[in-house]
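Ticket #4471: structure export looks truncated?
Reporter: QA, pipeline team
Priority: medium

Steps to reproduce: submit the single chain below to the structure queue and open the exported record.
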Amino acid sequence: MAVIIKYVVERNGEEKMTFTSKAEADAYDKMLDMADALFAVIEKSDLIENEEKREELALFLAENREDVLDALGAKRKATPKKKATKPEVVEDAA
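Actual output as written to the record:
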């Protein structure tokens, strides 16, 4: 018998997604938090009357966070780049 650990993301008593990694579950939960915050902003506008469409838009924007930040001109944190390693050169002893 195998033991399987599952991480479940739940919102308002509804199971949204199940993950095998805590990090993935946390990232998804964070994305849903962003979607909730974006929904509140979108809701202030009278441009989209349909609540379902507002939810879809908020989720889309949260899922595409990096592109949205680029479009808004937000500065990203510099990510450390891997140092390029030189290939090992083996000289022929002959």
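Status: closed, not a bug. The export was complete when the record was re-opened. Leaving a note from the reviewer for reference: The chain has a mean pLDDT of 84.
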